[in-house]
Amino acid sequence: MKYLEEYRNPEIAKRILDEIHAATTKPWVIMEICGGQTHAIMKNGIDQILPAEIELVHGPGCPVCVTPLEKIDRALEIAARDDVIFTSFGDMLRVPGSEKDLFMVKSEGGDVRIVYSPLDAVKIARENPDKKVVFFAVGFETTAPINAMAAFQAKREGLKNFSLLASHVLVPPAMRALLSSPENRVQGYLAAGHVCTIMGIEEYVPIAAEFKVPIVVTGFEPLDILEGILQVVIQLENGQFEVKNPYSRVARNEGNPAARKLLQDVFIVSNRKWRGIGEIPMSGFSLRDEYSDYDAEKIFGLGDLEVEEPEECISGIILQGLKKPNECPAFGTACTPQNPLGATMVSSEGACSAYYTYARHGKK
Ligand code: SF4
Q1: What is the 3-state secondary structure (H, E, C) of the chain?
Q2: Which one of 41, 97, 162, 301 has the largest count of C-beta atoms within 10 Å of its C-beta?
Q3: Which atom of ligand 1 is nearest to the CA of 342?
Q4: Which of 317, 349, 352 most suits a substitution to test ligand 1, by most atoms within 8 Å of the C-beta?
Q5: Atom 1 in ligand 1: which residue has the minimum CA distance?
Q6: 255-291: pLDDT as tens digits
Q7: What is the pTM of this model?
Q8: Which domains does the chain have, with CATH numbers?
């Protein structure tokens, strides 16, 4: 299949891998931002064939994983109401809140439905005028445009019974926050290719210059990831710190102007709490005042809510690249996909889920 098989070619992979080995003379810590990339790395065994000097650490780019517990608890509270149809992507249903998850609310009689697009939720709202239909709008810059489109569409139609429970997060502020931490270990980034497809690469240039880290826009196929690693390593070895985009077949440097315009029309950049990490300034999208009639938090008036993360879950540390999932004492014992203690074990993009699925039980 074009654009897939050609980026899985084993001979080319071997050639790039040889180049990585030849280029590497020192230890380097490289973070892949996106959870999709983490899974691709584990699935293809890329972490196991790199030079021993190269350590891959796994970033906070899993939207389900970084959605704060307070937001999950709000979702549970809204979903349990008789007058609500609560809609969400499937991933969110098993993410544990303080006491239960959305599946449990559903089993207790809540009308919780899995949808494949927020526009499906708009359709449900259209067909159920006597119910309040809420979509759990979680995600990075990649999913934000379609959620913005749902709010835009509902407003255009004058729908009064549709709203978003929005918890959007933004990648560049998180990269900056990790690099600013005194504990930071990251020396180079594989930037998330799909985020750049929407937002372009401009925002990364000042980060690379300020923190002296190479940033390489990277896709999700094995050759994309190997090429991304190679370009980061070459820069690190040569003392360079530029933004490079070898994923230009998908991510244009300027991003998608139409999607960015829609985001600007519907959302405003705001402070955002990240699960396990804490608040990162100006790292999220909230609905603009013009869209307050579509803001579930305002409609349901849930107010401030502060809850404690479970102590045994170290996912916040993992998502900062400071530890690996298999260093968590609960990994594979108290915490499994069947009995998850944290979102990173549930999400299809979670680092703990990747380590469990692809049997990385020991350290590299
Ligand atoms: S293994 Fe489970 S408890 Fe440990 S960090 Fe991952 S999700 Fe949290």
Answers
A1: CCCCHHHCCHHHHHHHHHHHHHHCCCCEEEEEEEHHHHHHHHHCCHHHHCCCCEEEEEEEECHHHHCCHHHHHHHHHHHCCCCEEEEECHHHHHCCCCCCCHHHHHHCCCEEEECCCHHHHHHHHHHCCCCEEEEEEEECCCCHHHHHHHHHHHHHHCCCCEEEEEEEECHHHHHHHHHHCCCCCCCEEEEEHHHHHHHCCCCHHHHHHHHCCCEEEECCCHHHHHHHHHHHHHHHHCCCCCEECCCCCCCCCCCCHHHHHHHHHHEEEEEEEECCCEEEEEEEEEECHHHHHHEHHHHHCCCCCCCCCCCCCCHHHHCCCCCCHHHCCCECCCECCCCCCCHHHCCCCCHHHHHHHCCCCCCC
A2: 162
A3: 7
A4: 352
A5: 331
A6: 999 999 999 999 999 999 998 889 999 999 999 999 9
A7: 0.92
A8: 65-170+256-300 (3.40.50.11740)
